[in-house]
Amino acid sequence: MPPVKSELCIEKGGMMNKITMLQNPSVIRRVFTSSALERLSAMAGELAVPSEPLGETPEAAEHFIRNADVVITSWASPALSQNLLDLAPNLKLVLHAAGSVKPIITDALWERRIPVISAASVLSRGVAETALGLTIMTLKNVWEVTAQTRAGNWWNNRADEVREHIREMYGVTIGVIGAGQAGRHYMELLRHFRVNILLYDPTVSVQEAAALGAQSVSLEQLMESSDVVMVLAPEIPQTYHMINEERLFMMKDDAVLINLARGSLVDEDALGKRLESGKLKVILDVTEPEPPPADHWLRKHPNVMLTGHIAGAVNNGLLSIGDFTVDELQRFYAGERLIGEIDPTRLHMLA
């Protein structure tokens, strides 16, 4: 076993369950408040919290997971291999205090039918709220207006090309690509406005789309008709470069493309060709590769805004993940429905 200099191990009499936080201390500090850790401690007979990084070798993880009843993972946690699981024969629940569970999932875990919980719904809510903010901002033509105000211009009662490009959340068409958790919450937020919502998601029926307040359409119809195209689909083989040259050239000249999903969904070479017209506006929170090189054309194009992968939780928002994780554990112990439980049959469709 590699040196594990110290660990916080809280034991309480009369309680036999062991909760292991299989995460590096730096991640724990970013995701869990002291009050969240206190709540965990109150539910544990033993709460094992590493005070040193787990390291690159498996032995440190083996040390912490031994005899655990509940394991909490997050970013940079090891995959729950057969070897690790054998050390925790009474493991009843895995709580992933992050988004995608794919880095920690193994066949051995599914074979044991252990419930796996993801905090993706918390991150998705932040993405949806960012999506709404960017939608309003870009329709208002904020980036062009603010650039022009530096030259002394103003638009309260002024008629010119800049003002003509200002639009409100009324009567416009918003195209949503992907009805995952982020897409659904975004559409829920859009229902507070008088806008038309188009949805492309081949896994959602016409009736389900209507219940979400949207009209189910083909991707081509969405690209042709939308004033704002919001990309929120998962990164899976079927979505690779789904925003290709043909579909980009279907978009209106005054439309806006916003990608808050993954960079691989947009063909950036094709995007460059489409932007040669100088009309389309683009906001990319993600790129391919990420980040783009310092001299990449995306960083310099006047019609492109790069937001540096901030759509989800960044600073204080990360703490909501810890609270959600503790809430889910409380629901588990109370025998209540778990909000973030992963359906293994749908894992291939998840980001």
From TrEMBL:
It comes from the Bacteria. Residues 46-340 form the D-isomer specific 2-hydroxyacid dehydrogenase catalytic domain. InterPro entries: D-isomer_2-hydroxyacid_DH, D-isomer_2_OHA_DH_cat_dom, D-isomer_DH_CS, D-isomer_DH_NAD-bd, NAD(P)-bd_dom_sf. GO terms for molecular function: glyoxylate reductase (NADPH) activity; hydroxypyruvate reductase [NAD(P)H] activity; NAD binding. Pfam families: 2-Hacid_dh, 2-Hacid_dh_C. Keywords: NAD, Oxidoreductase. SUPFAM superfamilies: Formate/glycerate dehydrogenase catalytic domain-like, NAD(P)-binding Rossmann-fold domains. Residues 133-311 form the D-isomer specific 2-hydroxyacid dehydrogenase NAD-binding domain. GO terms for cellular component: cytosol. PROSITE patterns: D_2_HYDROXYACID_DH_3. Belongs to the D-isomer specific 2-hydroxyacid dehydrogenase family. This is 2-hydroxyacid dehydrogenase. It comes from Paenibacillus abyssi.
